Automatic annotation (TrEMBL):
<dbReference type="GO" id="GO:0004715">
    <property type="term" value="F:non-membrane spanning protein tyrosine kinase activity"/>
</dbReference>
<dbReference type="Pfam" id="PF13614">
    <property type="entry name" value="AAA_31"/>
</dbReference>
<keyword id="KW-0997">Cell inner membrane</keyword>
<feature type="transmembrane region" description="Helical">
    <location>
        <begin position="30"/>
        <end position="48"/>
    </location>
</feature>
<protein>
    <recommendedName>
        <fullName>non-specific protein-tyrosine kinase</fullName>
        <ecNumber>2.7.10.2</ecNumber>
    </recommendedName>
</protein>
<dbReference type="InterPro" id="IPR005702">
    <property type="entry name" value="Wzc-like_C"/>
</dbReference>
<keyword id="KW-0472">Membrane</keyword>
<keyword id="KW-0418">Kinase</keyword>
<comment type="similarity">
    <text>Belongs to the CpsD/CapB family.</text>
</comment>
<keyword id="KW-1003">Cell membrane</keyword>
<keyword id="KW-1133">Transmembrane helix</keyword>
<dbReference type="InterPro" id="IPR003856">
    <property type="entry name" value="LPS_length_determ_N"/>
</dbReference>
<keyword id="KW-0067">ATP-binding</keyword>
<dbReference type="InterPro" id="IPR027417">
    <property type="entry name" value="P-loop_NTPase"/>
</dbReference>
<keyword id="KW-0547">Nucleotide-binding</keyword>
<dbReference type="GO" id="GO:0005886">
    <property type="term" value="C:plasma membrane"/>
</dbReference>
<keyword id="KW-0808">Transferase</keyword>
Length: 803
């Protein structure tokens, strides 16, 4: 049979398996579910008991900006946004989230709270975490560095004494005898100097004999571990409220970590903002000192010149002689002020002494590009200085940032040069215009011109001086009101119920797993089973008539056999072959053989002599002998004369019913015995049933069957009995069956549910269509009662009992 036919057979059989059939199979095997559900629930309960509970605490903060400030302080700070302080909403919320979740902030929190040292107490199912009210003592490791680990065990002895043992450093045990000391005492141990200090809850949390396991983690790993429990998310896209949550074994520790994270972030933010303010203040003070000296010199020059030359008031001279110069003077004043500020900032940047200093911001340059460059430079400079403080100047990132700062500094100088050139050009144009005006008033004395020029310088310096004084006051005001960047909306709170493990959810998962596992096994067993299961599997592929179905004797499970068959493993045939037909019995086996007898009598009806029928199969172990013996017995119960012949002279299974005598069919065919009737043995347990045994198993059964004595023997038995049943070897395995088939009227082909593969059915169909076996009918043996689930429509119901 080709592979395509085999695949079609398997698909046809698998199509009969649906949800209803699966449900029936599952209900039949309810004991599986009881066992798996109990085991799964036990495992789930054990997991719930042995898993430490995790708790969650939530907090909310608002990132402040100018629009959100309602207090006097907020309004005042909002008025000074030109000083470089921005309170952005959405644009900076993500930056705040990144800053809060940064390792630097968490490192500071771990160091501040001292949670790099953990305390646990052994429990029945898991180690309990000690913190807050449950922690009686704390241990301070004085000689253990931040990048080292250490562990030890404490045992409270009562009366303020404690015993230390189990010392380990950097994962290696340290040999030492247990040490004892008093609580609050500093002692020398194998881990260096330790201080065991009592907490405020020592009296309540401590108890005699209580064991505490102490473990100090290195700061980096502790930071990473605690950072993993923190999450920050934006509460609403239209607001600047951030929701912080922390998951931990201790509710108190989770609350403390959330509070410390917010406080630490605010401290860092205020510190960074103060650095910018301090740098701006230093720059303004330096500029004011220089301008004050220059302004004093100009005032002295004007006073001396007026006193020497008796020059009248310059303003009066200008009012009388040059009204047009007013506009030029105002413009020149503004341009010279901006030019001076630009020159001061340019000199400050070019000065190598200020290379790593912050550049003053918002000094009235009125150039957005330069202001943005200076802000970017200050931000990178702050980050560089912080990185140097944390990792030193040898960090490659510091060198990269120095290069970046140098490039930005050159870009700023270039922009300042362009701006100064532009201002100088405009001033030059105005001065030319002023020169033309001065030419038109040639009547003014030379002294007036000199005073005009000197007083213009005086006004420029006075304006610049007043401008810097104003900026200094604004900067000092901002420094005085250096408020936090965030406001706590909701303090850390949460339920005391653990978020994990969820007992109900885990038990539900256990229940589902307990129900799903046997269902999956049953489904896999059935869909992978390629053997026949009942009438419908056979009728879909073989057109030969069905003589009957024989139920499984004893009701045992066939799941293991099906599993072996699905992987191509042929199951061994065992068990006792016996006659189960009994007079007056109405069990499933007896009723099945009565139905088979009725069908058989209709098929084997003959008007001349007795009917001769042989039983064969595709392979051994299908129950041919069982079917032959029991059909013969039920025919006898019906008042018929029946002879059962053991035609399988290679095994002689049927001969076992009469004790395997030495005389039998083999001796008759060999010519040893002349009268076949003398070799027939009556079966004592079933009066009226005669059996022709094989006798001594011959070495040449095929030659004996072909000797010519078989046909006369069959004819003689046909005249003596109503029915002659011959138990034959499997067809196509040996030639014996083909020789016997020449002398019979009918053939019963025995299939076995759970053993005969569906791929054999096309071969059976070919045998039927080729008529090599006369009047072939089918018997399916070992059909389980559950086979009705596969649509066999052969559920036997007699005497209120399902068969």
């Amino acid at each position: 049979m080709d592979e395509l036919s085999r695949n079609n057979q398997m698909e046809d059989g698998g199509a009969q398996f649906g949800m209803r059939n699966l449900l029936i199979l599952c209900l039949r095997r309810w004991r599986w579910y009881v066992v798996t559900v109990v085991v799964a629930l036990a495992i789930a309960a054990f997991y719930v008991k042995t898993t430490p509970p995790m708790y969650k605490r939530d907090a909310s903060i608002m990132v402040l900006d100018g629009r959100q400030e309602s207090s006097a302080l907020g309004k005042m700070l909002a008025d000074f946004t030109d000083m470089g302080f921005s309170f952005s909403d959405k644009a900076n919320v993500n930056n705040v989230i990144a800053a809060i979740q940064s390792p630097d902030v968490m490192r500071e929190v771990v160091a501040t709270l001292g949670i790099d040292v953990s305390y646990t107490s052994p429990g029945t199912f898991y180690d309990a975490t000690l913190y807050g009210k449950t922690l009686p003592v704390t241990v301070k490791f004085r000689d253990i560095d931040e990048d080292e680990t250490a562990s030890m065990t404490l045992k409270l002895l009562g009366d303020g004494n404690v015993e230390m043992a189990g010392f380990a450093k950097n994962g290696k045990a340290v040999d030492s005898e247990p040490l004892q000391c008093r609580v609050g005492q500093t002692v020398h141990t194998p881990l260096g100097i330790l201080t065991i200090a009592p907490t405020d809850y020592y009296a309540k949390a401590g108890g005699k004999g209580k064991r505490i396991d102490v473990r100090k983690s290195d700061l980096n790993s502790a930071t990473g571990r605690f950072l993993g429990g923190l999450s920050v998310a934006i509460g609403d896209k239209k607001s600047t409220i951030l929701n912080l949550s922390y998951t931990d074994l201790s509710t108190k520790r989770a609350e403390d970590i959330l509070s410390a994270v917010v406080d630490t972030y605010n401290e860092v933010w205020v510190k960074n903002r103060s650095r910018v303010s301090n740098s701006t203040s230093r720059f303004i003070d330096e500029r004011l000192a220089i301008i004050e000296r220059e302004l004093g010199n100009v005032d002295t020059d004007i006073a001396n010149y007026k006193s020497k030359n008796l020059v009248p008031d310059v303003e009066m001279a200008y009012t009388l002689s040059m009204e047009r110069a007013d506009k030029n003077s105002a413009t020149l004043l503004d341009l010279n002020t901006r030019l001076s500020v630009a020159r001061y900032i340019r000199d400050y940047i070019a000065d190598k002494a200020n290379t790593n200093q912050l550049i003053p911001v918002d000094l009235g340059l009125e150039n957005d590009k330069i202001d943005e460059q200076i802000k970017n430079y200050n931000a990178i400079q702050l980050e560089r200085n912080q990185m140097i403080a944390n990792s030193g100047r040898q960090n490659p990132l510091v060198h990269d940032m120095d290069k970046q700062l140098a490039q930005i500094r050159r870009a700023i100088i270039y922009s300042m040069d362009n701006m100064m050139m532009s201002l100088s050009t405009r001033i030059s144009h105005l001065q030319n215009d002023e020169q033309k005006t001065n030419t038109n008033i040639s009547a003014n004395p030379t002294q007036a011109k000199f005073l005009l020029s000197v007083e213009r310088q005086q006004k420029v310096k006075e304006a610049l001086y007043l401008f810097l004084l104003q900026k200094r006051e604004e900067n000092e005001l901002a420094r005085a009101f250096n408020a936090d960047n965030t406001q706590v909306i909701k303090s850390p709170t949460g339920s005391n119920a653990p978020i994990s493990p969820k007992g109900s959810v885990i038990m539900l998962i256990g229940l589902v797993a307990g129900l799903a596992l046997p269902t999956a096994v049953i489904y896999l067993l059935e869909v992978s089973n390629t053997t026949i299961r009942g009438r419908r599997d056979v009728e879909g592929s073989v057109t030969a008539p069905m003589l009957g179905e024989l139920p499984r004797i004893g009701g045992g499970s066939r799941n293991v056999s099906q599993l072996k068959a699905s992987f191509g493993i042929r199951q061994a045939v065992g068990g006792e072959c016996r006659i189960v037909v009994e007079a007056g019995s109405r069990n499933s086996a007896n009723e099945a053989f009565r139905i088979m007898r009725t069908n058989f009598e209709f098929m084997a009806a003959s008007e001349t002599a007795g009917s001769v029928t042989m039983f064969t199969s595709a392979a051994s172990g299908t129950g041919k002998t069982f079917a032959t013996a029991n059909l013969a017995a039920v025919l006898v119960l019906g008042g018929k004369r029946v002879l059962a012949i053991d035609g399988d002279m290679r095994k002689g299974s049927l001969s076992g019913f009469v004790g395997n005598p030495n005389k039998g069919l083999a001796g008759y065919l060999a010519g040893t015995y002349a009268d076949a009737a003398e070799l027939v043995c009556p079966y004592a347990k079933c009066p009226g049933l005669d059996i022709m045994p094989v006798g001594t198993l011959p070495d040449n059964p095929t030659e004996l069957l072909s000797s010519g004595r078989l046909e006369p023997f069959v004819d003689e038995m046909r005249r003596r009995y109503d029915y002659v049943l011959i138990d034959c070897p499997p067809v196509n395995v040996v030639a014996d069956t083909a020789i016997i088939a020449r002398n019979v009227d009918n053939t019963v082909f025995v299939l076995r549910a759970g053993m005969t593969d569906r791929s054999v059915l096309p071969d059976v169909e070919k045998l039927y269509l080729s008529a090599r076996l006369r009047n072939m009918t089918l018997v399916i043996n070992d059909v389980a009662c559950t086979e009705e689930a596969f649509g066999t429509d052969t559920g036997y119901v007699y005497a209120g009992r399902h068969l």
